[in-house]
Write a structure and sequence with these properties.
Elements (H helix, E strand, L loop, with lengths): L2 H6 L3 H7 L12 H11 L4 E5 L2 E4 H17 L7 E5 L4 H12 L3 E4 L6 H11 L3 E5 L3 H5 L2 H4 L3 E5 L7 H10 L13 E3 H6 L17 E7 L7 E6 H14 L8 E4 L6 H12 L4 E4 L8 H8 L3 E4 L1 H8 L13 E4 L6 H13 L6 E5 L9 E2 L9 E5 L4 E5 L13 E6 L6 E2 L3 H7 E3 L5 E11 L6 E6 L4 E3 L2 E3 L1 H9 L4 E11 L3 E10 L7 H14 L8 E4 L13 H12 L1
Parallel strand pairs: 1-11, 3-4, 3-5, 4-8, 5-6, 6-7, 10-11, 10-12, 12-13, 13-14, 26-27
Antiparallel strand pairs: 1-2, 8-9, 9-19, 14-15, 15-16, 16-22, 17-18, 18-21, 20-21, 21-22, 23-24, 25-26
Helix pairs in contact: 3-4, 3-5, 4-5, 11-12, 14-15
Length: 573
């Protein structure tokens, strides 16, 4: 090994000790190609299950091909953007790969986004086609004209179930969403698939590693919504890297897909990674703590991957002593895992029959959701471990491109096959996040603070540089909420902070100063809340509002939001 490699990737020693390759070779292919390969090698393995209805890889590929034919029938062409505004259902999963098969791009949108947000996502991607759950149909349908939609494909909750379960569901759930009768732009999923018969041409479009595969949304460096362009290589490299460093990731193993498909961790780690390796994906469209025990008992998963709040739920779930005996890998990402919760999870796993111990990952949407993973049986506070094969991490002094000394805190920068193609339609924002350094490499500046440990040569996370609130694994951007609140005619200024929550980790709280002549009270609070509801996803809405005559400021006149955070913490003591 060259000296330069040890200087830039000192953790390679760990790979050598573990007998793992530090470099991989990536095929020049699309995401769906990896699934087709899995189907060829393990046709009878379960590809996914949905409320107990299991589908093999052989049949999953048939579903993908039929959906791809249906897309072609409705005029979807190579390079078109198809919006998928869905929870974790078979139709959403099938559509991701059908879109990829025809050479189009999956535009992944949170179904609980506000109508204004959905309109922005559709227009930003120039998407003419939308797949949507029936419960969210109305807010998408209202955008038909303003967003220039050609087709809305509507999925009912029962569509992905087996025949008998589907019949029972429709008998028991009589409430239906009314769809317009005479609008040819609207089609039910079952009719969409049935109409695939009318297209008999070629459906497969050859796409390469560096072609755009999906657009996911995050706050970017400024907090305003940003489309993150991820390539086939980004997803395929993630699948190969993750299954290389996680020994339990073998064909036939199963993983709980609780994290949603519009989340990079969900789509990249919980869905595409296992599907690229012949593993099974257990689709969970809506997670409830009350159902957690049943989910585990009925599905007997081998992998659990989630955010800290998921593990808070796990340790408060009543299970029998051997209910977790099937679980052999447990991964945590999306937010920092404190040592208290880590120790409780490990003790809970052992007490319920699992030999697994929780491992901590680190990633962000701009790097396909996961880039680094702590070793098995390494439990130091803050550890996020060794970067994946072919991934370079560099700690730089904040505000510079200069490498920090080992052990010195700085901004975490990432380089390698997982780094995004850039922000959609925003070269300026891309230029603020991705930089060419003097070493000749292109680096993604993450906005997270950490250091390279002198002794074990692993990466450690300490804090965030950017203002972000993490609530149940979702990122909430205070500056964006503040811009919406400040647009109210009666608001002089506002600041949003994260406050501790027993189940969600944190929730947002808004502090508001009104203009002279406006009176604090329920009326104006309701107006501000309704304004936010039109522009912001439900999960990001402030849980509480507090009106003040003024806000604390720093010496340079900026709002001292950290002081507000300290005040809130003091209230809870």
């Amino acid at each position: 090994m060259k000296k330069r490699e040890y200087e830039e990737r000192p953790w390679i020693k760990f790979y050598e000790e573990e007998g793992l390759p530090a470099n991989l070779e990536y095929p020049d292919c699309s995401m769906v190609d990896m699934v087709l390969k899995s189907a060829e090698e393990w046709p009878d393995n379960m590809a996914y299950s949905y409320y107990g209805h299991k589908v093999t890889y052989k049949n999953f590929v048939k579903k993908i091909e039929k959906a791809a034919r249906a897309l072609k029938n409705y005029g979807v062409k190579e390079g078109d953007r198809v919006t998928i505004c869905m929870p974790n259902t078979p139709e959403a999963l099938t559509m991701v790969y059908a879109v990829n098969m025809v050479g189009a791009v999956a535009n992944m949108v949170h179904p609980l986004s506000s109508e204004k947000e959905i309109e922005y996502y559709i227009r930003a991607a120039e998407s003419k086609y939308v797949l949507v759950f029936d419960a969210m149909f109305d807010k998408v349908y209202r955008l038909c004209d303003s967003a220039g939609l050609s087709r809305i494909i509507v999925v009912r909750p029962s569509d992905g179930l087996g025949f008998l379960k589907k019949k029972m569901y429709r008998l028991l759930h009589v409430k239906k969403v009314r769809l317009p009768f005479n609008d040819s732009r609207v089609v039910l999923w079952e009719d969409f698939i049935a109409n695939s018969y009318f297209y008999q041409g070629e459906v497969y479009e050859k796409r390469g590693a560096n072609d755009l595969a999906a657009i996911l949304y995050s706050g970017g460096t400024t907090g305003a919504p940003k489309g993150i362009m991820l390539s086939n290589l980004n997803f395929n490299a993630l699948g190969m890297m993750a299954t290389t460093v996680i020994r339990q990731a073998v064909p036939g193993a199963s993983i709980l897909a609780i994290l949603p498909n519009f989340h990079a961790f969900g789509l990249g780690v919980c869905m595409h990674t296992p599907l690229s390796k012949g593993m099974g994906v257990i689709l969970i469209p809506v997670f409830s703590h009350k159902q957690f025990a049943d989910i585990i008992r009925k599905n007997e998963p081998n992998f659990i991957a989630g955010v800290p709040t998921l593990y808070e739920s796990l340790i408060n779930t009543k299970l029998k002593p051997d209910d977790l005996k099937s679980v052999n890998a447990v991964i945590c990402g999306g937010d920092a895992l404190n040592s208290t919760l880590r120790d409780k999870v490990n003790a809970y796993l052992k007490a319920h029959g699992s030999k697994a111990k929780i491992r901590v990952g680190f990633g962000l949407t701009e790097a396909c959701g996961a880039t680094c993973l702590s070793p098995e049986n390494s439990f130091k506070d803050g550890i996020i471990g060794a970067p994946f094969p072919d991934m370079y991490f560099k700690i730089v002094k904040i505000g510079t491109f200069e490498r920090a000394k080992d052990g010195e805190e700085g901004e975490i920068c990432i380089s390698g096959p997982l780094v995004m193609m850039g922000y959609l339609n925003d070269d300026a924002e891309t230029a603020r996040a991705v930089h060419l350094h003097d070493d000749g490499h292109v680096w993604l500046h993450t906005g997270d603070i950490g250091y390279l440990n002198k002794d074990d040569h692993f990466i450690y996370f300490t804090q965030r540089l950017k203002r972000i609130i993490v609530s149940s694994g979702y990122n909430i951007y205070p500056t964006y909420l503040e811009s919406v609140i400040n647009s109210h005619e009666g608001v002089l200024t506002s600041t949003v902070i994260g406050v501790d929550h027993p189940h969600k980790g944190q929730v947002a709280k808004a502090f508001i100063v009104l203009k002279p002549g406006y009176k604090a009270g329920k009326k104006i609070e309701r107006e501000i809340r309704e304004l936010l509801e039109r522009h912001v996803a439900i999960y990001a809405l402030p849980a509480s509002y507090e009106f003040r005559d003024k806000l604390p400021t720093t010496l340079v006149g900026k709002v001292a939001f950290k002081k507000l955070e300290d005040e809130e913490r003091a209230k809870k003591k």
